[in-house]
Specification:
The chain has helices spanning 21-26, 53-63, 75-86, 114-120, 159-168, 184-187, 189-205; strands at 6-10, 32-35, 68-73, 91-97, 146-151, 172-177. The protein is an alpha/beta fold. The protein has one domain: 3-Layer(aba) Sandwich (Rossmann fold). It has a six-stranded parallel β-sheet with strand order 2-1-3-4-5-6, with helices on both faces.
Length: 207
């Protein structure tokens, strides 16, 4: 990859930039890597400028000062997609892991993650888990190549979600990781990094 490539990692509702550390360390190839955190989510300190998803999209859009690769987990996938829809010319490739991007995963037999999240992060922003805008139809307009990575044992965002997303994006590929759950990017970091590397290298080959 080019030494001037910018690669932006977006966490899920945990809000922690450290979520992507295992994968990003394996993909350290000279690219400008940015591991973002979400103020007020999980155990992250709040910020007065962040009061909902739109403000998190603003954070990502501000990072798109040059063409970049977006790599996002779970709720971060919705944020990534919405930032891409705002600035499609600035996103070269997209990687989503266990991300329903606004679809109601419970319609695909996904479990309700909010009660456990509240127990784990009692001080997290109150708006986390509130109903969000479904951007399913807008996904059909995204021309950037998309890699979907799913653990086949994910109870929160089941494989059926990934399969449905693969039909919505015009240029998407779904890869399944045996035994992976919702945190597959951490528990199976070497395998996830390998899949991402192949996806990103496709740009260099002109695929």
């Amino acid at each position: 990859m080019s030494l001037f490539t910018k690669r932006i990692y977006l966490p899920g509702a945990s809000g922690s930039a450290e979520f992507w550390r295992p994968v990003s360390s394996l993909l350290d190839d000279g690219a400008h890597q940015r591991l973002l955190a979400w103020p007020g989510l999980g155990n992250e300190a709040p910020a007065p400028t962040v009061n909902g998803i739109d403000n998190l999209v603003d954070i990502v859009e501000a990072e798109l000062d040059e063409p970049a690769e977006l790599i996002a987990q779970s709720m971060g996938g919705l944020i990534a997609v919405r930032a891409l829809l705002r600035r499609p010319e600035r996103v070269r490739r997209l990687v989503l892991t266990a991300a329903s991007v606004g679809m109601h995963a419970r319609a695909f037999s996904g479990s309700d993650w909010v009660p456990d999240y509240r127990k784990a992060y009692p001080n997290s922003a109150s708006w986390v888990g509130a109903p969000i805008l479904d951007v399913s139809e807008e996904l059909r307009t995204i021309v950037a190549p998309v890699l979907l990575i799913w653990g086949d044992c994910d109870p929160i965002s089941p494989v059926a979600v990934g399969r449905h997303l693969e039909t919505l994006f015009p240029n998407a590929t779904l890869r399944l990781i045996p035994g992976g759950d919702h945190d597959v990017a951490q528990t199976h970091a070497p395998m996830v990094a390998k899949l991402i590397r192949e996806h990103l290298d496709a740009e260099r080959r002109g695929d």
